[in-house]
Write a structure and sequence with these properties.
The chain has about 150 residues and is an alpha+beta fold. Helices cover about 25% and strands about 35% of the residues.
């Protein structure tokens, strides 16, 4: 099973792609994690959107930001893989593609993320280190992590 990766600016997303991305984010971050929050935060318009499709469906996604938008460094956010495809290890592929995307599109190698605490080891496996104490964001434990 092979996933196809694309990176697009907000303006270049089709209405169907945007709908599928927002649906995936809502299914995971609002419904699965039982967290009522406003996912549409205004940052989508300035992000690059990395998404993976399989069998015509968007199954993995993240936002890429240049330095100065979310953190002083470039940033990766809204990292998500469809529940039905998590056994494929596409989360690791997604992070590799995101790191490459930051380098290729922004010329950056320093990346800061706000990570859900339970995913610390996952992000560490991609070279990130914890740089903050635990904090709550939308009632979910998070930590800041950095990759140099």
């Amino acid at each position: 099973m092979k996933i196809q990766w694309q990176i697009k600016s907000f303006e270049h997303l089709s209405s169907h792609e945007l709908y599928d991305i927002l649906r995936l984010r809502s299914a995971i971050f609002v419904v699965e994690q039982n967290c009522v929050y406003l996912d549409i935060d205004g940052k989508d318009k300035v992000a690059l959107h990395l998404f993976g499709t399989f069998d015509g469906k968007i199954v993995a996604y993240s936002r890429l930001f240049k330095a100065g938008i979310t953190f002083d460094n470039a940033s990766i956010g809204r990292v998500v893989v469809d529940t039905n495809y998590r056994n494929q290890k596409w989360g690791h592929e997604l992070m590799k593609e995101a790191i490459i995307g930051i380098k290729n599109h922004f010329g950056e190698s320093k990346i800061t993320i706000g990570a859900q605490l339970y995913l610390k080891k996952f992000y560490e496996s991609h070279g990130f280190i914890q740089i903050s104490e635990m904090y709550l964001e939308d009632a979910i434990p998070h930590i800041e992590m950095k990759k140099e």
